[in-house]
Amino acid sequence: MTARERQAILELLRNQPWAALASLDEQGLPQASMAAIALAPGDRGVLLHLSTLAAHTRNLARNPAASIVASEAHRPAADPQQLARVSLDGEVRRLGARDEGYATARAAYLECLPDAEPLFSFADFGLFLLVPRAGRFVGGFGRALSFDWRELVSVKG
């Protein structure tokens, strides 16, 4: 992976606050929903602020395996096949308010999504971290690569 590819992936994750989140329901079937996202400090993964009332959060409590996909915004009259997009596969874990790094993660989430501030006072919401293992980046039609998350975050530049 080149430094340029790494930068394109991380910029997409930094600039796109909305992603499809796939989890496995109680029968083990895939279930997709939408969730707000923010890149975690130190590129440790992707932050999600989820309600326990949502099916995807209950799914993740049973089985932490998850995947997200984020895409650059569609432009009118543009070919959607040309849009850059990234998918990440990994496991989601809840960050407790007393966990080391929680305050920094919360601040990073709110820096990206300041309108979410009131939701942090709701008892049913919690902050979660998707810890990616692998991903797939499509930089446009015919430009794609698979990557290991550790490789992505170790590339300098």
Give a verbal description of the structure:
The chain is an alpha+beta fold and 157 residues long. Helices cover 24% and strands 40% of the residues. Strands 1-2-3-6-5-4 form a six-stranded antiparallel β-barrel. Strand 1 and strand 2 form a beta hairpin. The longest helix is centred in the first third of the chain and has 13 residues. The radius of gyration is 16 Å and the shape is globular. It starts with a helix and ends with a helix. The model has no long low-confidence stretch (mean pLDDT 93).
Strand content: 35-45%
What structural class is derived from the secondary structure elements?
alpha+beta
Q: Which spans have pLDDT < 50 for at least 5 consecutive residues?
A: none
User: What is the count of DSSP helices, taking H or I runs of 4+ residues?
Assistant: 4
Mean pLDDT score: 93
In short:
The chain is α+β, with helices and mostly antiparallel strands. It is built from 4 helices and 7 strands, in the order αβββαββαββα. The longest helix has 13 residues, at 3-15.
SSE arrangement:
Blueprint lengths: L2 H13 L2 E7 L5 E10 L6 E6 L3 H8 L2 E7 L13 E11 L6 H11 L12 E16 L2 E6 H6 L3
Antiparallel strand pairs: 1-2, 1-4, 2-3, 3-6, 4-5, 5-6, 6-7
List keywords for this structure.
single chain; alpha+beta; 24% helix
